[in-house]
Amino acid sequence: MLSSALASEPPPQRQQELAHMVRQECGSCHGMSLQGGLGPALLPADLRDKPAEGLAATIYHGRPGTAMPPWQRFLTEAEAAWVVDRLLSGFPE
Amino acid sequence: MRILFSVLLVAFLSACAGTPPLRGTGDLALIIERASGHVTLANTSTRQPYARIGGLGDLSHASAVYSRDGRYAYVFGRDGALSKIDMLEGRMVKRIVQSGNAIGGSISQDGRIVVAQNYKPGGIKAFDAETLELLAEVPAEYAPGQFSKVVGLADSPGNKFVYALFDAGEIWVSDFSDPRRPVTQRFPAGQNPYDGLVTPDGRHFLAGLFGEDGVALLDLWQPEKGSRKILEKYGRGEEKLPVYKMPHLRGWSVAQGKAYLPAIGRHEVLVVDVATWKEVGRIPVRGQPVFVMARPDGRQVWVNFAFPDYGKVDVIDTLKGQVAHQLEPGKGILHMEFTPRGENVWLSARDDHKILIYNTENLTRIGEITADAPSGIFFSSRAQRIGF
Fold it and tell me: Which residue ranges form the domains of chain A, and what is each CATH number?
Protein backbone atom coordinates (compact mmCIF):
# COMPACT_ATOMS: atom_id res chain seq x y z
CA MET A 1 0.00 0.00 0.00
CA LEU A 2 2.35 2.68 -1.25
CA SER A 3 -0.41 5.21 -1.65
CA SER A 4 -1.44 5.13 2.01
CA ALA A 5 2.05 6.33 2.91
CA LEU A 6 1.34 9.69 1.24
CA ALA A 7 2.11 12.62 3.53
CA SER A 8 -1.18 14.25 2.55
CA GLU A 9 -3.37 11.47 3.89
CA PRO A 10 -6.17 13.02 5.99
CA PRO A 11 -6.33 12.22 9.72
CA PRO A 12 -8.63 9.27 10.64
CA GLN A 13 -11.53 11.46 11.80
CA ARG A 14 -11.49 13.39 8.53
CA GLN A 15 -11.26 10.15 6.54
CA GLN A 16 -14.49 9.04 8.18
CA GLU A 17 -16.18 12.32 7.29
CA LEU A 18 -15.02 12.05 3.68
CA ALA A 19 -16.14 8.44 3.44
CA HIS A 20 -19.56 9.42 4.81
CA MET A 21 -19.79 12.28 2.30
CA VAL A 22 -18.90 10.02 -0.64
CA ARG A 23 -21.38 7.29 0.34
CA GLN A 24 -24.24 9.62 1.27
CA GLU A 25 -23.91 12.83 -0.79
CA CYS A 26 -22.07 11.57 -3.88
CA GLY A 27 -24.25 8.50 -3.48
CA SER A 28 -27.41 10.44 -4.28
CA CYS A 29 -26.32 10.39 -7.94
CA HIS A 30 -23.67 7.67 -8.05
CA GLY A 31 -25.45 5.24 -5.71
CA MET A 32 -24.59 4.51 -2.09
CA SER A 33 -22.82 1.36 -3.24
CA LEU A 34 -21.19 3.47 -6.00
CA GLN A 35 -22.68 1.31 -8.72
CA GLY A 36 -24.00 4.35 -10.56
CA GLY A 37 -27.31 6.12 -10.96
CA LEU A 38 -27.90 9.37 -12.76
CA GLY A 39 -24.11 9.68 -12.50
CA PRO A 40 -21.69 6.95 -13.64
CA ALA A 41 -20.52 4.01 -11.51
CA LEU A 42 -17.42 4.71 -9.39
CA LEU A 43 -16.18 1.19 -8.71
CA PRO A 44 -12.47 0.36 -9.28
CA ALA A 45 -13.25 -1.44 -12.55
CA ASP A 46 -15.07 1.63 -13.87
CA LEU A 47 -12.26 4.04 -13.03
CA ARG A 48 -9.16 1.96 -13.72
CA ASP A 49 -8.52 3.39 -17.18
CA LYS A 50 -8.95 7.01 -16.18
CA PRO A 51 -6.03 9.17 -14.96
CA ALA A 52 -6.25 9.84 -11.21
CA GLU A 53 -5.42 13.55 -11.55
CA GLY A 54 -8.33 14.02 -13.95
CA LEU A 55 -10.71 12.27 -11.55
CA ALA A 56 -9.54 14.43 -8.65
CA ALA A 57 -9.99 17.56 -10.78
CA THR A 58 -13.52 16.45 -11.67
CA ILE A 59 -14.38 16.17 -7.96
CA TYR A 60 -12.74 19.48 -7.09
CA HIS A 61 -13.85 21.63 -10.05
CA GLY A 62 -16.92 19.71 -11.25
CA ARG A 63 -17.59 19.13 -14.92
CA PRO A 64 -19.30 22.09 -16.59
CA GLY A 65 -22.15 21.17 -18.90
CA THR A 66 -22.97 18.05 -16.89
CA ALA A 67 -24.75 17.41 -13.59
CA MET A 68 -21.39 17.03 -11.75
CA PRO A 69 -20.96 20.05 -9.44
CA PRO A 70 -17.67 21.33 -7.98
CA TRP A 71 -17.04 20.09 -4.42
CA GLN A 72 -14.23 22.55 -3.57
CA ARG A 73 -16.30 24.16 -0.80
CA PHE A 74 -16.25 20.85 1.06
CA LEU A 75 -12.80 19.34 0.55
CA THR A 76 -9.25 20.28 -0.42
CA GLU A 77 -7.47 19.17 -3.59
CA ALA A 78 -5.37 16.78 -1.49
CA GLU A 79 -8.54 15.29 0.00
CA ALA A 80 -10.04 14.92 -3.49
CA ALA A 81 -6.89 13.01 -4.48
CA TRP A 82 -7.30 10.80 -1.39
CA VAL A 83 -10.94 10.08 -2.32
CA VAL A 84 -9.84 9.06 -5.84
CA ASP A 85 -7.11 6.86 -4.36
CA ARG A 86 -9.71 5.14 -2.14
CA LEU A 87 -12.18 4.78 -5.02
CA LEU A 88 -9.51 3.09 -7.13
CA SER A 89 -8.61 0.63 -4.40
CA GLY A 90 -12.13 -0.15 -3.15
CA PHE A 91 -13.96 2.44 -1.10
CA PRO A 92 -14.30 1.99 2.70
CA GLU A 93 -17.82 1.44 4.09
CA MET B 1 -71.80 -34.04 5.42
CA ARG B 2 -72.94 -32.24 8.55
CA ILE B 3 -70.11 -33.88 10.53
CA LEU B 4 -67.57 -32.78 7.94
CA PHE B 5 -68.90 -29.25 8.11
CA SER B 6 -68.60 -29.22 11.92
CA VAL B 7 -65.03 -30.44 11.73
CA LEU B 8 -64.20 -27.73 9.23
CA LEU B 9 -65.90 -25.11 11.40
CA VAL B 10 -63.88 -26.12 14.44
CA ALA B 11 -60.69 -26.07 12.39
CA PHE B 12 -61.58 -22.64 11.06
CA LEU B 13 -62.36 -21.22 14.52
CA SER B 14 -59.19 -22.56 16.06
CA ALA B 15 -57.18 -21.09 13.19
CA CYS B 16 -58.81 -17.75 13.94
CA ALA B 17 -57.80 -17.88 17.59
CA GLY B 18 -54.18 -17.19 16.64
CA THR B 19 -54.87 -14.36 14.21
CA PRO B 20 -54.50 -10.70 15.16
CA PRO B 21 -57.57 -8.45 15.35
CA LEU B 22 -58.94 -7.03 12.12
CA ARG B 23 -57.59 -3.67 11.00
CA GLY B 24 -57.71 -1.37 7.99
CA THR B 25 -54.81 -0.19 5.87
CA GLY B 26 -55.60 3.51 5.49
CA ASP B 27 -53.19 4.88 8.08
CA LEU B 28 -49.98 2.92 7.57
CA ALA B 29 -46.48 4.05 6.69
CA LEU B 30 -43.41 2.48 5.16
CA ILE B 31 -40.05 4.02 5.99
CA ILE B 32 -36.97 3.28 3.87
CA GLU B 33 -33.80 2.67 5.89
CA ARG B 34 -31.41 3.26 3.04
CA ALA B 35 -28.12 2.10 4.47
CA SER B 36 -29.16 -1.25 5.87
CA GLY B 37 -31.66 -2.61 3.33
CA HIS B 38 -34.51 -2.49 5.83
CA VAL B 39 -37.96 -0.95 5.88
CA THR B 40 -39.81 -0.02 9.07
CA LEU B 41 -43.59 -0.15 9.03
CA ALA B 42 -45.46 2.29 11.25
CA ASN B 43 -48.96 3.36 12.13
CA THR B 44 -49.68 7.04 11.50
CA SER B 45 -52.55 7.17 14.01
CA THR B 46 -50.61 5.81 16.99
CA ARG B 47 -47.34 7.18 15.51
CA GLN B 48 -45.57 3.96 16.50
CA PRO B 49 -43.59 1.43 14.45
CA TYR B 50 -45.04 -2.09 14.32
CA ALA B 51 -42.70 -4.12 12.10
CA ARG B 52 -39.23 -4.06 10.57
CA ILE B 53 -38.28 -6.06 7.49
CA GLY B 54 -34.77 -6.69 6.16
CA GLY B 55 -33.11 -8.14 3.10
CA LEU B 56 -34.31 -5.57 0.59
CA GLY B 57 -30.84 -4.81 -0.84
CA ASP B 58 -29.48 -1.38 -1.82
CA LEU B 59 -32.20 1.07 -0.85
CA SER B 60 -30.43 4.34 -1.67
CA HIS B 61 -33.04 6.39 -3.50
CA ALA B 62 -35.63 3.64 -2.98
CA SER B 63 -39.31 4.45 -3.39
CA ALA B 64 -42.63 2.65 -2.96
CA VAL B 65 -46.13 2.51 -4.43
CA TYR B 66 -49.21 0.81 -3.01
CA SER B 67 -51.77 -1.68 -4.26
CA ARG B 68 -55.20 -0.12 -4.54
CA ASP B 69 -56.38 -1.77 -1.31
CA GLY B 70 -53.35 -0.36 0.51
CA ARG B 71 -52.32 -3.80 1.70
CA TYR B 72 -49.20 -4.27 -0.38
CA ALA B 73 -46.29 -1.90 -0.90
CA TYR B 74 -44.02 -2.37 -3.90
CA VAL B 75 -40.51 -1.16 -3.07
CA PHE B 76 -38.14 -0.29 -5.90
CA GLY B 77 -34.47 -0.55 -4.86
CA ARG B 78 -31.49 1.08 -6.48
CA ASP B 79 -30.03 -2.35 -7.24
CA GLY B 80 -32.95 -3.16 -9.55
CA ALA B 81 -34.88 -5.21 -6.99
CA LEU B 82 -38.66 -5.05 -6.73
CA SER B 83 -39.97 -6.20 -3.34
CA LYS B 84 -43.62 -6.75 -2.47
CA ILE B 85 -44.38 -6.06 1.20
CA ASP B 86 -47.54 -7.15 3.02
CA MET B 87 -48.33 -4.16 5.25
CA LEU B 88 -50.76 -6.13 7.43
CA GLU B 89 -48.66 -9.22 8.04
CA GLY B 90 -45.46 -7.18 8.16
CA ARG B 91 -43.48 -9.43 5.87
CA MET B 92 -41.95 -9.59 2.42
CA VAL B 93 -44.17 -11.61 0.09
CA LYS B 94 -41.91 -11.68 -2.94
CA ARG B 95 -38.71 -10.13 -4.26
CA ILE B 96 -37.34 -10.16 -7.78
CA VAL B 97 -34.28 -8.51 -9.31
CA GLN B 98 -35.61 -6.95 -12.48
CA SER B 99 -32.72 -4.79 -13.70
CA GLY B 100 -29.18 -3.72 -12.89
CA ASN B 101 -30.02 -0.23 -11.69
CA ALA B 102 -33.46 1.20 -10.99
CA ILE B 103 -34.85 4.51 -9.85
CA GLY B 104 -38.45 3.98 -8.86
CA GLY B 105 -41.76 2.83 -10.19
CA SER B 106 -45.46 3.28 -10.46
CA ILE B 107 -48.75 1.39 -10.44
CA SER B 108 -51.53 1.47 -13.03
CA GLN B 109 -54.94 3.08 -12.64
CA ASP B 110 -56.59 -0.35 -12.26
CA GLY B 111 -53.91 -1.53 -9.84
CA ARG B 112 -53.00 -4.57 -11.91
CA ILE B 113 -49.69 -3.46 -13.40
CA VAL B 114 -46.58 -2.39 -11.51
CA VAL B 115 -43.99 -0.63 -13.66
CA ALA B 116 -40.33 -0.11 -12.77
CA GLN B 117 -38.21 2.61 -14.34
CA ASN B 118 -34.63 1.68 -14.96
CA TYR B 119 -31.31 3.39 -15.51
CA LYS B 120 -29.51 0.28 -16.66
CA PRO B 121 -30.62 -1.12 -19.00
CA GLY B 122 -32.58 2.09 -19.65
CA GLY B 123 -36.31 1.62 -20.05
CA ILE B 124 -39.41 0.51 -18.19
CA LYS B 125 -40.66 -2.95 -17.30
CA ALA B 126 -44.23 -3.93 -16.45
CA PHE B 127 -45.12 -6.65 -13.94
CA ASP B 128 -48.29 -8.35 -12.85
CA ALA B 129 -49.08 -6.72 -9.48
CA GLU B 130 -50.28 -10.04 -8.08
CA THR B 131 -47.42 -12.34 -9.08
CA LEU B 132 -44.63 -9.95 -10.21
CA GLU B 133 -44.51 -11.90 -13.46
CA LEU B 134 -42.95 -9.84 -16.27
CA LEU B 135 -45.65 -8.66 -18.70
CA ALA B 136 -43.81 -6.38 -21.09
CA GLU B 137 -40.91 -3.99 -21.39
CA VAL B 138 -40.27 -0.79 -23.27
CA PRO B 139 -36.54 -0.23 -23.79
CA ALA B 140 -35.67 3.48 -23.85
CA GLU B 141 -33.84 3.09 -27.16
CA TYR B 142 -34.16 6.58 -28.56
CA ALA B 143 -31.73 6.03 -31.43
CA PRO B 144 -30.37 2.74 -32.78
CA GLY B 145 -28.27 1.15 -30.03
CA GLN B 146 -28.62 4.17 -27.72
CA PHE B 147 -30.54 3.77 -24.48
CA SER B 148 -31.52 6.50 -22.05
CA LYS B 149 -31.92 6.53 -18.31
CA VAL B 150 -35.59 6.86 -17.44
CA VAL B 151 -36.83 9.40 -14.87
CA GLY B 152 -40.12 10.83 -13.65
CA LEU B 153 -42.31 7.78 -14.26
CA ALA B 154 -45.93 8.47 -13.27
CA ASP B 155 -49.23 6.69 -13.80
CA SER B 156 -52.01 8.49 -15.63
CA PRO B 157 -55.61 7.54 -16.38
CA GLY B 158 -56.24 4.83 -18.97
CA ASN B 159 -53.48 2.54 -17.67
CA LYS B 160 -50.94 4.86 -19.26
CA PHE B 161 -47.50 5.61 -17.88
CA VAL B 162 -45.65 8.80 -18.62
CA TYR B 163 -41.90 9.24 -18.15
CA ALA B 164 -38.92 11.23 -19.33
CA LEU B 165 -35.64 10.17 -20.91
CA PHE B 166 -32.71 11.94 -19.25
CA ASP B 167 -30.22 11.31 -22.06
CA ALA B 168 -32.65 11.68 -24.97
CA GLY B 169 -34.52 14.78 -23.78
CA GLU B 170 -37.91 13.25 -24.54
CA ILE B 171 -41.21 12.43 -22.84
CA TRP B 172 -42.71 9.04 -23.61
CA VAL B 173 -46.28 7.90 -23.00
CA SER B 174 -46.79 4.13 -22.91
CA ASP B 175 -50.36 2.86 -23.07
CA PHE B 176 -50.77 -0.48 -21.27
CA SER B 177 -54.45 -1.02 -22.16
CA ASP B 178 -53.18 -4.37 -23.38
CA PRO B 179 -50.62 -5.09 -20.64
CA ARG B 180 -48.51 -7.38 -22.82
CA ARG B 181 -48.48 -5.06 -25.85
CA PRO B 182 -47.81 -1.48 -24.76
CA VAL B 183 -48.03 1.27 -27.38
CA THR B 184 -45.63 4.20 -26.96
CA GLN B 185 -45.77 7.81 -28.16
CA ARG B 186 -42.76 10.14 -28.08
CA PHE B 187 -42.61 13.90 -27.48
CA PRO B 188 -39.69 16.35 -27.26
CA ALA B 189 -38.91 17.60 -23.72
CA GLY B 190 -35.67 19.59 -23.66
CA GLN B 191 -32.19 19.07 -22.32
CA ASN B 192 -31.76 16.49 -19.53
CA PRO B 193 -35.16 16.09 -17.89
CA TYR B 194 -34.36 15.09 -14.29
CA ASP B 195 -37.82 14.17 -12.95
CA GLY B 196 -41.47 14.48 -13.77
CA LEU B 197 -44.94 14.73 -12.30
CA VAL B 198 -48.54 14.16 -13.25
CA THR B 199 -50.94 16.79 -11.90
CA PRO B 200 -53.45 15.47 -9.32
CA ASP B 201 -56.23 15.39 -11.96
CA GLY B 202 -54.07 13.23 -14.22
CA ARG B 203 -54.25 15.72 -17.08
CA HIS B 204 -50.78 17.29 -17.37
CA PHE B 205 -47.28 15.85 -17.23
CA LEU B 206 -44.43 18.16 -16.32
CA ALA B 207 -40.77 17.30 -16.77
CA GLY B 208 -38.23 19.48 -14.97
CA LEU B 209 -35.13 20.17 -17.04
CA PHE B 210 -31.61 20.14 -15.68
CA GLY B 211 -29.73 21.10 -18.85
CA GLU B 212 -31.70 24.27 -19.53
CA ASP B 213 -33.95 26.74 -17.69
CA GLY B 214 -37.48 25.55 -18.22
CA VAL B 215 -40.06 22.84 -17.69
CA ALA B 216 -41.61 20.65 -20.40
CA LEU B 217 -45.41 20.36 -20.36
CA LEU B 218 -47.61 17.77 -22.05
CA ASP B 219 -51.41 17.89 -22.00
CA LEU B 220 -52.37 14.21 -21.76
CA TRP B 221 -55.94 15.02 -22.74
CA GLN B 222 -54.71 16.51 -26.02
CA PRO B 223 -51.44 14.80 -26.80
CA GLU B 224 -51.94 15.59 -30.49
CA LYS B 225 -51.13 19.20 -29.61
CA GLY B 226 -47.65 18.10 -28.59
CA SER B 227 -45.41 19.15 -25.73
CA ARG B 228 -44.32 22.69 -25.02
CA LYS B 229 -42.00 24.51 -22.71
CA ILE B 230 -42.98 26.71 -19.79
CA LEU B 231 -40.90 28.83 -17.39
CA GLU B 232 -38.36 29.29 -20.15
CA LYS B 233 -35.22 31.17 -19.17
CA TYR B 234 -36.29 31.52 -15.54
CA GLY B 235 -32.63 31.84 -14.63
CA ARG B 236 -32.37 34.98 -16.77
CA GLY B 237 -28.97 33.90 -18.03
CA GLU B 238 -27.40 34.22 -14.58
CA GLU B 239 -24.79 31.68 -13.57
CA LYS B 240 -26.28 28.68 -11.79
CA LEU B 241 -25.39 27.77 -8.24
CA PRO B 242 -24.05 24.22 -7.90
CA VAL B 243 -26.73 21.53 -7.47
CA TYR B 244 -25.57 18.81 -5.04
CA LYS B 245 -28.73 16.76 -5.32
CA MET B 246 -31.41 16.58 -8.01
CA PRO B 247 -34.83 17.89 -6.95
CA HIS B 248 -37.87 15.64 -6.94
CA LEU B 249 -41.21 16.34 -8.56
CA ARG B 250 -44.61 14.76 -7.85
CA GLY B 251 -48.23 15.88 -7.93
CA TRP B 252 -47.91 17.26 -4.40
CA SER B 253 -46.52 20.46 -5.98
CA VAL B 254 -49.98 21.62 -7.01
CA ALA B 255 -51.97 23.68 -4.49
CA GLN B 256 -54.77 26.21 -4.89
CA GLY B 257 -54.50 26.40 -8.68
CA LYS B 258 -50.77 26.91 -8.62
CA ALA B 259 -47.77 24.66 -9.03
CA TYR B 260 -44.80 25.25 -6.72
CA LEU B 261 -41.67 23.99 -8.45
CA PRO B 262 -38.00 23.87 -7.46
CA ALA B 263 -35.71 26.11 -9.52
CA ILE B 264 -32.48 24.45 -10.65
CA GLY B 265 -29.30 26.22 -9.57
CA ARG B 266 -31.25 28.97 -7.84
CA HIS B 267 -32.40 29.14 -4.24
CA GLU B 268 -35.98 29.77 -5.26
CA VAL B 269 -39.37 28.12 -5.58
CA LEU B 270 -41.09 29.01 -8.86
CA VAL B 271 -44.85 29.55 -8.78
CA VAL B 272 -46.89 28.79 -11.89
CA ASP B 273 -50.60 29.31 -12.54
CA VAL B 274 -51.88 25.93 -13.75
CA ALA B 275 -54.67 27.54 -15.83
CA THR B 276 -52.30 29.60 -17.98
CA TRP B 277 -48.98 27.85 -17.17
CA LYS B 278 -47.39 31.29 -16.75
CA GLU B 279 -45.01 32.18 -13.93
CA VAL B 280 -46.83 34.19 -11.29
CA GLY B 281 -44.12 34.45 -8.68
CA ARG B 282 -40.93 33.15 -7.18
CA ILE B 283 -40.16 32.70 -3.53
CA PRO B 284 -36.62 32.94 -2.14
CA VAL B 285 -35.68 30.00 0.12
CA ARG B 286 -32.57 28.94 2.06
CA GLY B 287 -31.01 26.47 -0.35
CA GLN B 288 -31.43 24.36 -3.49
CA PRO B 289 -34.97 22.98 -3.10
CA VAL B 290 -35.31 19.19 -3.34
CA PHE B 291 -38.91 18.49 -2.29
CA VAL B 292 -41.48 21.28 -2.64
CA MET B 293 -44.59 19.74 -1.11
CA ALA B 294 -47.97 21.27 -0.52
CA ARG B 295 -49.91 20.26 2.57
CA PRO B 296 -52.97 18.41 1.25
CA ASP B 297 -55.22 21.45 1.80
CA GLY B 298 -52.73 23.69 -0.02
CA ARG B 299 -52.47 26.19 2.84
CA GLN B 300 -48.72 25.55 3.31
CA VAL B 301 -45.88 24.40 1.10
CA TRP B 302 -42.93 22.73 2.81
CA VAL B 303 -39.47 22.86 1.22
CA ASN B 304 -36.36 20.87 2.07
CA PHE B 305 -32.92 21.32 0.57
CA ALA B 306 -29.92 19.69 -1.03
CA PHE B 307 -26.59 19.21 0.75
CA PRO B 308 -25.18 21.25 2.48
CA ASP B 309 -28.43 22.98 3.54
CA TYR B 310 -30.34 19.80 4.32
CA GLY B 311 -30.70 20.58 8.02
CA LYS B 312 -33.22 23.28 7.15
CA VAL B 313 -36.89 23.26 6.18
CA ASP B 314 -38.80 26.34 4.98
CA VAL B 315 -42.59 26.56 5.28
CA ILE B 316 -44.30 28.78 2.71
CA ASP B 317 -47.60 30.47 3.55
CA THR B 318 -49.54 30.21 0.27
CA LEU B 319 -51.80 33.17 1.03
CA LYS B 320 -48.84 35.47 1.61
CA GLY B 321 -46.69 33.84 -1.08
CA GLN B 322 -43.62 33.86 1.14
CA VAL B 323 -41.74 31.79 3.69
CA ALA B 324 -43.54 32.08 7.01
CA HIS B 325 -41.44 29.68 9.12
CA GLN B 326 -37.82 28.60 9.01
CA LEU B 327 -37.15 25.31 10.80
CA GLU B 328 -33.94 23.47 11.68
CA PRO B 329 -35.45 20.08 12.51
CA GLY B 330 -32.41 17.80 12.37
CA LYS B 331 -29.47 16.47 10.38
CA GLY B 332 -29.96 15.38 6.81
CA ILE B 333 -33.68 16.00 6.22
CA LEU B 334 -34.18 13.86 3.11
CA HIS B 335 -37.93 13.48 2.77
CA MET B 336 -41.32 14.67 4.01
CA GLU B 337 -44.76 13.06 3.99
CA PHE B 338 -48.08 14.55 5.06
CA THR B 339 -50.90 12.62 6.68
CA PRO B 340 -53.80 12.49 4.21
CA ARG B 341 -55.61 15.48 5.68
CA GLY B 342 -52.44 17.35 6.52
CA GLU B 343 -52.52 17.73 10.31
CA ASN B 344 -49.09 16.09 10.66
CA VAL B 345 -45.95 15.87 8.57
CA TRP B 346 -43.26 13.23 9.00
CA LEU B 347 -39.66 14.22 8.23
CA SER B 348 -36.80 11.78 7.84
CA ALA B 349 -33.60 12.95 9.55
CA ARG B 350 -31.01 10.62 8.05
CA ASP B 351 -28.03 11.50 10.21
CA ASP B 352 -30.09 11.68 13.42
CA HIS B 353 -31.50 8.20 12.62
CA LYS B 354 -35.00 9.39 13.37
CA ILE B 355 -38.35 10.16 11.83
CA LEU B 356 -39.55 13.48 13.26
CA ILE B 357 -43.30 14.05 13.46
CA TYR B 358 -44.65 17.61 13.45
CA ASN B 359 -48.01 19.21 13.98
CA THR B 360 -48.29 21.41 10.85
CA GLU B 361 -50.57 24.00 12.47
CA ASN B 362 -48.38 25.04 15.40
CA LEU B 363 -45.09 23.52 14.14
CA THR B 364 -44.40 21.63 17.36
CA ARG B 365 -42.76 18.24 17.36
CA ILE B 366 -45.22 15.66 18.61
CA GLY B 367 -43.28 12.45 18.23
CA GLU B 368 -40.39 10.56 16.73
CA ILE B 369 -39.55 7.08 15.52
CA THR B 370 -36.09 5.55 15.53
CA ALA B 371 -34.87 4.33 12.13
CA ASP B 372 -31.45 3.51 10.65
CA ALA B 373 -30.50 6.32 8.22
CA PRO B 374 -34.10 6.87 7.06
CA SER B 375 -34.81 8.34 3.62
CA GLY B 376 -38.18 7.94 1.89
CA ILE B 377 -41.45 7.85 3.86
CA PHE B 378 -44.48 6.44 2.05
CA PHE B 379 -47.99 6.50 3.53
CA SER B 380 -50.58 3.96 2.40
CA SER B 381 -52.93 6.83 1.53
CA ARG B 382 -50.89 7.11 -1.68
CA ALA B 383 -52.83 4.06 -2.87
CA GLN B 384 -55.78 6.26 -3.82
CA ARG B 385 -53.92 9.08 -5.56
CA ILE B 386 -53.24 9.58 -9.27
CA GLY B 387 -49.52 9.99 -9.95
CA PHE B 388 -48.33 8.24 -6.78
Answer: 4-89 (1.10.760.10)
